[in-house]
Specification:
- With about 80 residues, the protein is of the alpha+beta class.
- Helices cover about 40% and strands about 25% of the residues.
- It contains three helices and three strands, in the order αββαβα.
- This is BolA/IbaG family iron-sulfur metabolism protein.
- InterPro entries: BolA, BolA-like_sf, BolA/IbaG_stress_morph_reg.
- Pfam families: BolA.
- Belongs to the BolA/IbaG family.
Length: about 80
């Protein structure tokens, strides 16, 4: 079973310096939600941003260990524009 820390570590390995927040959305250890803020996303489309994140966990998706990962991705500039949450 996966946990938020393992997923966050994997994403951080692919996107060093990113701000990563992971939440288990169902409590079953295979459906998660992620918010990732990374300078690597600057100038990239949403699809390109998501591909960067999914590439870091693709093996888990392929085996079914990770069934779903809902993403919200932002460059630091995009995140700053959203203001306080």
């Amino acid at each position: 079973m996966l946990d938020a820390e393992r997923i966050a570590a994997r994403i951080l390995g692919a996107l060093p310096g990113a701000e990563v927040q992971i939440q288990d959305s169902t409590g079953t250890g295979d459906h998660f939600e992620a918010r990732v803020v990374s300078a690597d996303f600057a100038g990239k489309t949403l699809v390109q941003q998501h591909k960067l994140v999914y590439a870091s966990v693709q093996d888990w998706l392929d085996t079914g260990e990770l069934h779903a990962l809902a993403l919200k991705t932002y460059s630091p500039e995009q995140w700053k524009k959203l203001g306080p949450r």
